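PROTEIN DESIGN WORKSHEET
SECTION A - STRUCTURE
LENGTH: 260
TOKENS:
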């Protein structure tokens, strides 16, 4: 048994080094060796319950401890928030764990989700084609960054453009396109969409085949291929609606093209 000074009333109390206190309260040691906010709250509660009513109480020490407890709680909450954010940022990335396979290599996999439970935080990982749960404590680093969401969104946008272009081709819709020449000048081209396809060889883009019309709206017999993104107007366009005006204003800062 050892003696310790009570900071609240400057008295000396006997504290058992193991087992229980002199009042029979069990002494519990944290298995993890870490003091969390609940541990400090228990200590504070024990101090308050063991005050000596015959001694003058130091209220400033009590207020100071409460302030320290509040500050520690805020720091704990901030640390939890930052940790949760870091775990969420692992989604879509390939991480390496401290576990090893039969060949002695560290196991790695792609993170597909984050799960929080009372026992800790776990990552849903795709390892060798199988979904497995791995504790975040077993992650030792990120070895590769893959923005899965960006890839998925890009493919979805490409498919959407292709469906829209195919619909224009199926119904032979009229279009007005902006064609940029080698000298940087923009020319408006009128035509009728006759076909559409997806080009994934040089770049992931959607192409449309256009039967060119002259200024009077008559077929010229020429067919050209354009990017789907070159379309200015498309659909059941009248002659007036196809007469898009091109106004370009230039200053020292930028060049602006306006369709009217």
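SECTION B - SEQUENCE
RESIDUE ASSIGNMENT:
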């Amino acid at each position: 048994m050892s003696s310790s000074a009570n900071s609240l009333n400057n008295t000396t109390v006997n504290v058992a080094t193991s087992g229980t206190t002199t009042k029979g309260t069990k002494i519990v040691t944290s298995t993890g060796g870490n003091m969390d906010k609940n541990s400090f709250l228990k200590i504070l509660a024990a101090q308050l319950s063991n005050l000596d009513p015959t001694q003058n109480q130091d209220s400033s020490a009590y207020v100071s401890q409460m302030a320290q407890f509040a500050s520690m709680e805020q720091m704990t909450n901030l640390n939890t928030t930052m940790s949760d954010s870091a775990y969420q940022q692992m989604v879509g990335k390939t991480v390496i764990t401290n576990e090893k396979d039969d060949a002695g290599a560290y196991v790695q996999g792609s993170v597909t989700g984050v799960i929080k439970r009372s026992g800790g935080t776990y990552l849903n990982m795709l390892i060798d084609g199988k979904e497995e749960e791995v504790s975040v404590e077993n992650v030792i680093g990120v070895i590769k960054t893959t923005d899965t969401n960006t890839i998925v969104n890009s493919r979805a946008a490409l498919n959407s453009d292709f469906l829209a272009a195919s619909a224009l081709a199926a119904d032979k819709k009229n279009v007005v396109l902006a064609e940029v020449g080698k000298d940087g000048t923009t020319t408006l081209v009128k035509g009728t969409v006759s076909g559409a396809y997806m080009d994934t060889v040089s770049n992931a883009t959607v192409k449309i085949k256009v039967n060119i019309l002259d200024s009077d709206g008559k077929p010229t017999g020429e067919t050209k291929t354009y990017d789907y993104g070159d379309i200015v107007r498309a659909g059941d366009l009248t002659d007036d609606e196809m007469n898009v005006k091109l106004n370009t204003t230039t200053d020292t800062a930028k060049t602006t093209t306006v369709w009217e």
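SECTION C - NOTES
Residues 169 and 195 are 5 Å apart (CA to CA).
The longest helix spans residues 59-88.
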